[in-house]
Amino acid sequence: MPRFYRIARLGILIWLSVVILGAFSFGGAGLNIPRIPLLEHTARNLYFHVPMWFTMMAITALSAWHAFRMLSTHSQIADIRSRSAALVAVAFGVLGLVTGSVWAHYTWYEGTNIWWNFDPKQTMAAAQVLIYGAYFALRGALDDPEKRARIAAVYNLFAFVTVPFLLYVLPRQMESLHPGAEGNPAFSEITHPMMRLVFYPAVLGFIGLAWILYTQRVRLAAARARLDSLEGAIPA
């Protein structure tokens, strides 16, 4: 493992640990959040739920870039990188849905059994995760490696085009309980500036964590591909 990677990984993990401590810090550390009507202390989920979607968008961009490189160069490693990034993006998308569902339950639907109400932003976020889930279903349906890589790369680029519309543009044009939607103030207008001291580092920290997971997936997939090629070269 390269020394730079080890140092970068350690730095990211330390950074994220500090962020988590800041997120749950109470009085005495100077990071205690203001009491926000309705949200109260559940507002701390801002440091987790929202960064999940920032991270998903960043990693889908990385996946699309390597999909483009695969179509341009027909490189196997580019296909591996594109697939690995898409897998990490789906994982963070699922975490975004889960943290959002829990947050909604304990704020908008407190005292009820409601965990999901098909709010436009919830629905479109779920659709986005399903679009990338279909990417892996498509890959699994194709046996020829070259054909699979090409078709999956084209689909990946299509999927990435939908990301800004489903996760940002369209939900803001519809009535929704989410901040920033039509008729609602942006989250920056209802939260205290002090929260940004944790929020922005949290975004960077979770993107860094996604990079760690992505690079590990790439290394594992590349090792498996080399092993398969060696096994294929050995006479039966």
Explained architecture:
Helix content is 71%, strand content 0%. It has 236 residues and is mostly helical. It has one domain. Helix 4 runs antiparallel to helix 5. The radius of gyration is 20 Å and the shape is globular. The chain starts with a helix and ends with a helix.
Question: In brief, what are we looking at here?
Answer:
The protein has helices at residues 3-23, 46-73, 76-105, 120-141, 145-169, 187-190, 196-233. The mean pLDDT is 84.
Number of domains: 1
Radius of gyration: 20 Å
Helix content: over 70%
What is the typical, i.e. mean, pLDDT? 84
How many DSSP H or I helices? Answer: 7
How far apart lie the N and C ends? 33 Å
In percent terms, what proportion of residues is strand? under 5%
Order of helices and strands: HHHHHHH
Decide which structural class fits the backbone.
mainly alpha
The major β-sheet equals: none
Number of strands: 0
Low-confidence stretches: none
Which word captures the global form? globular
Please tag this protein with its features.
236 residues; single chain; mainly alpha
Spell out the blueprint of helices and strands.
Layout: H1 3-23, H2 46-73, H3 76-105, H4 120-141, H5 145-169, H6 187-190, H7 196-233
Helix pairs in contact: 1-7, 2-3, 2-5, 2-7, 3-4, 3-7, 4-5
